[in-house]
């Protein structure tokens, strides 16, 4: 049967799937721009972990898990708990465990509670979306085939080898046919290894580089090129290489989500947008677009909301009477993770997910769902143009099964139906001068996190995490701190700390400390040290370039 992956990845891969002798078998499906399809490394691990798991639904009483005999009893218990808190303050979070259209029926159900609070903002791509809406009226990518018509592709923090493996394969194929690839990032990632030139840059300085290029290329006045390049740490040779590449042919500008997770993230994206347009490359500018753009929305409206930068603290202060968490792991993946942990310990909590995780460790009720493999759904890629639909691969309890049953038990209509088609709005550039915002000069380390090719950001994989509990540090910084490989480092901010084994690497820029995303470290996790600070769009969280102190644990 035709299947697709709706996890937290921009590719939205089509897959041929079947169950053979009780085990899943998957085969990649080619897209219009790709001669052969393949199943990425992340999906393979994920599928093996999710299908046929022994995890069951349970209620926790006095620290002990009491397992339900069947799904009907588990969903019934959830209905009873929701009814108990129907007229009280409920915090509701739906995460990226699956991004399919039909997961939106959870929103429709929970909006039926008068005092339910949704979270305003998100941790993914909202800052960049706001930048594209400000400049073009909508976030919308052109066809990816446009890159094939370019002479050069510049990737601003787009670590495609890890976060968009099908784009990475496409870029490698185009490189064989003459595409020049330039990769810009504070960290020399796997994607940098296929680049014709890797250009290191200081965190949060991509906008300064874009502004300097506009002035130096004669596209826009008003920018202090020398000052901008000095702050960004860009060498004269790298700058001339960029100028020559842009001026000598068609250039694709590919923006990673990471650049918009800086304090000045919206400003960065807008400046790159201007550089692309003013250099005649609007049709070659890529960021992303909405994964439900081909269908009309469900028209959900909540009466209440809580800003994303306040939610962990307010939950920890016991402001909410009940927390309902669907397909999210905020105690691992959100900023201020320790306050999420405190809040869950102090607040009656329902978790609906495929696997247990750091968030569900202290929940009161865990409902196990079959996840994407049990869910009939549809979704569009949020990088490519394609969209896919699927039937359920397994007969396990699905999210829509749960929502439908709760709708009946709680008498809250959700009205599930086939979605109406919609036509995405086209881009139209709005020419407005954008003055660069300088990142803070704090003189400390800049804390960065990075996705890993072996796991999805919404997962927790203990067997993989064992070899990844590391903090990567530049050789010059290691020498200054008398740090050797394998030493234990403590990385601290005003919000919290974690510890990890040191690994000295010249892939990390000076005064940058980097650890892998969303896995347990020796003590704590990286998001224990990430404060809940808003980006300049006002609705996204800052995850990169956090001022941090690094010390060797003696």
UniProtKB/TrEMBL annotation:
Residue span(s) of domain Molybdopterin oxidoreductase: 117-365
Signal peptide range: none
GO molecular function: iron-sulfur cluster binding; metal ion binding; molybdopterin cofactor binding; oxidoreductase activity
InterPro entries: Asp_de-COase-like_dom_sf (IPR009010), MoPterin_dinucl-bd_dom (IPR006657), Mopterin_OxRdtase (IPR006656), Prok_Mopterin_Oxidored (IPR050612)
Presence of the UniProt keyword Plastid in the record: no
Record keyword Hydrolase present: no
Domain Molybdopterin dinucleotide-binding: 451-536
Alphabetized UniProt keyword annotations: Iron, Iron-sulfur, Metal-binding
Family of the protein in this entry: Belongs to the prokaryotic molybdopterin-containing oxidoreductase family.
Protein name, entry field: Molybdopterin-dependent oxidoreductase-like protein
Species for this entry: Seleniivibrio woodruffii
Lineage of source species: Bacteria, Pseudomonadati, Deferribacterota, Deferribacteres, Deferribacterales
């Amino acid at each position: 049967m035709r299947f697709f992956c709706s996890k937290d990845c921009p590719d939205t891969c089509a897959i041929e799937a079947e169950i053979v002798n009780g085990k899943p078998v998957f085969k990649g499906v080619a897209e219009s721009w790709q001669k052969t399809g393949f199943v990425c490394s992340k999906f393979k691990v994920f599928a093996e972990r999710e299908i046929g798991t022994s995890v069951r639904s349970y209620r926790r009483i006095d620290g002990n898990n009491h397992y339900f005999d069947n799904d009907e009893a588990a969903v019934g218990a959830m209905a009873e708990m929701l009814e108990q808190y129907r007229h009280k303050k409920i915090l509701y979070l739906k995460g990226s465990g699956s991004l399919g259209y039909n997961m939106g029926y959870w929103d429709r159900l929970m909006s039926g509670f008068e005092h339910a609070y949704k979270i305003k903002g998100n941790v993914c791509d909202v800052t960049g979306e706001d930048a594209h809406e400000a400049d073009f009226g909508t976030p919308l990518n052109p066809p990816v085939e446009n890159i094939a018509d370019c002479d050069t592709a510049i990737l601003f923090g787009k670590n495609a080898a890890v976060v968009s493996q099908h784009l990475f394969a496409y870029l490698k194929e185009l490189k064989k046919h003459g595409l020049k690839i330039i990769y810009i990032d504070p960290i020399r990632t796997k994607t940098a290894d296929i680049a014709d030139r890797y250009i290191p840059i200081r965190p949060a300085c991509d906008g300064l580089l874009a502004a300097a290029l506009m002035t130096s290329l004669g596209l826009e006045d008003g920018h202090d090129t020398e000052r901008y390049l000095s702050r960004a740490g860009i060498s004269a040779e790298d700058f001339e290489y960029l100028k020559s590449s842009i001026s000598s042919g068609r250039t694709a500008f590919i923006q990673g989500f990471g650049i918009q997770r800086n304090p000045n993230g919206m400003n960065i994206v807008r400046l790159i947008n201007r550089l692309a347009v003013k250099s005649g490359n609007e049709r070659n500018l890529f960021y992303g677009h909405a994964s439900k753009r081909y269908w009309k929305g469900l028209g959900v409206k909540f009466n209440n909301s809580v800003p994303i930068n306040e939610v962990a603290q307010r939950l920890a202060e016991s402001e909410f009477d009940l927390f309902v968490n669907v397909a999210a792991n905020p105690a691992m993946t959100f900023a201020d993770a320790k306050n999420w942990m405190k809040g869950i310990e102090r607040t009656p909590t329902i978790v609906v997910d495929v696997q247990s995780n750091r968030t569900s460790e202290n929940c009161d009720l865990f409902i196990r769902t079959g996840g994407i493999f049990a869910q009939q759904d549809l979704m569009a890629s949020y990088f490519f143009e394609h969209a896919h639909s699927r039937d359920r691969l397994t007969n396990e309890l699905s999210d829509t099964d749960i929502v439908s049953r709760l709708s009946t038990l709680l008498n809250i209509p959700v009205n599930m139906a086939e979605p109406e088609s919609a036509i995405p709005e086209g881009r139209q550039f709005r020419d407005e001068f954008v003055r660069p915002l300088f990142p803070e000069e704090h003189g400390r380390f800049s804390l960065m996190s990075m996705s890993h090719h072996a796991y999805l950001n919404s997962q927790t994989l203990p067997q993989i995490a064992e070899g990844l509990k590391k903090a990567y540090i530049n050789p010059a910084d290691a020498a200054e701190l008398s740090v050797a490989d394998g030493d234990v480092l403590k990385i601290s901010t005003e919000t919290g700390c974690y510890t990890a084994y040191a690994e000295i690497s010249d892939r990390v820029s000076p005064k940058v400390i980097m650890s892998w995303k969303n896995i347990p470290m020796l003590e704590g996790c990286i998001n224990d040290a990430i404060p809940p600070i808003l980006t300049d769009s006002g609705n996204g969280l800052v995850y990169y370039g956090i001022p941090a102190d690094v010390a060797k644990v003696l």
